[in-house]
Structure formats: structure tokens, C-alpha cells
Amino acid sequence: MAGTSSEHIRHHLTNLTFGRNADGEWKIAQSSSEAAEMGFWAIHLDTMLWSVMLGVVFLFFFKRAADRAVAGVPGGMQNFVEWLVEFVDNTVRGSFRGHNPLIAPLALTIFVWVFLQNLMDLVPVDFIPWLVGDYALGLVPYMKIVPTTDVNATFGMALGVFLLVIYYSIKVKGVGGFVGELTLHPFESKNIFVQALFIPFNFILEFISLIAKPISLSLRLFGNLYAGEMIFILIGLMYSGGLVLGIFGGFLQLGWAIFHILVITLQAFIFMTLTIVYLDMAHQTDH
Is 143:132 a contact under the CB 8 Å cutoff? Predict the structure, then answer.
């Protein structure tokens, strides 16, 4: 570990950022302050790299399992994939009341992809930065390998779900039905003039509820994984405190890693389940 503890923590919490600096030059930021100056249009290269790589890993293994599927006694990979598909399918059947062939594949993709991104949190926090960062090869100044600890990644996925919710709300209910859902509930009246007075209040309440869906979906996943990564970093600092503290830190790290397996799985499941629920609401025409 180089530098002070605060510098070490800041190093691990900074993304590999490409953007335009204050001088107008497009480059990879060499410090956290320079990354912050690049503003909205900067790209977190490590988040993009690892999320795409993990997506490719997901597609590769599932495609391989599908190609090698047999009708007789299945192998371990086929058993696992079939169990996972059945688990997601049962979850969709229990939460989605409409009929849409997209929902189950979408739910499966979300669950596995988010789980794989979360799973990277179990890789020792110093290993990859040491391997490719300024601690060893000097290839890049920063490297965060857990995409879901980047709020841009979680919000991007949540925004994709949100756009699907808007699309199916309009497709199933029509423009008038969607607008009516935003303006005629929850306060109702049979008197047309009173109902007209309720429209602004209904719109404010329903619009906030609508916008809260992608925000809560993204921040819940980000907050839990960011906190988990921070705990791993803080435990890792104990290794520099001597033999006794290092051994104690090793036991803490093992215990937190075992518990964190539950956390990363649960967060992937929650993201998938809320996606199904939100899309189910978009398909309902009860009102």
C-alpha cells in the first residue's frame, strides 16, 4: 500500500476516467481531483470494461450450455443453467400477471449480469490495481473492478428498466390511459370540476412516484455494494498494522466475504424482482 490510509482509500474509490480536462485536452485523469473536473461527459473506462466483459462471460457460458444440452443425463453446467432458468421463470410467474415473452429473458439477464458484477467485490481489493495499476505495471492510474459500485452503472441499468416501463405503459394503456394514470389518481371525484382541481396534485404525486422507481432501483444496488467495498478496503488496511492486527483482519475479511455472498446475491435478486414488479404495473389496466 502506498501513501497514507486516506490516500489508499481514495485511490480504490476513484474510477479510471477519460474526459476533457480544464485545458480542453481529452485524456485519462491522473488524479481524483482531475477526474472530478472532467464533469458529466467523462467516461469511466473501468466500469465500461468490466461490465461488458462480465456480460460476455454470461453470454459465453449460457450459449455453451445451450449448445451442449442433451436430452439424457445432463452435465453440471446444464443442470445449473436449467435450475437458474427455472428459478427465474417461477419468480416471473409469481410476480408478473400479464403476458410478455420479453420479461423472463430480461429478468434472467438482469439477475445473472448484476450478480456477476457484484461478485467482483469478492476479488481482493488490492490485487487488480496492483497488477495493472501504478503499483506494478503502470498501465493505468486507477482500476475499479466492481461496476455496481459506480452509481453511473447502476443508474444506467435502472434507466433502461425505466424506459421499458414508460414504453409498455403507453403501449398497453395508450397515451390517454398513461396520462390518465398520472393525473386522475389517487384523488378521485365524480364531479368533473373537483376532479379538474385534483389533477395538478395527482400529477405531482404520481410523477414523483414514477421518477422514484429508477432512482431507488439504482441507489439501493449502488449503496449496498459501495458499502461492501468500503468495508473490504477498511479491513485491508489492518494488514499494515502488524502481525496480530493482520491475522485479525484476515478472519474479519473471511467472515465478511462469506456474509457478502448473501448480500451480492440478494441485491441481484431484488433488482430483478423490482424490475418484474415495475413492468407488471406497466401492463395493468385496472384503472
Answer: yes
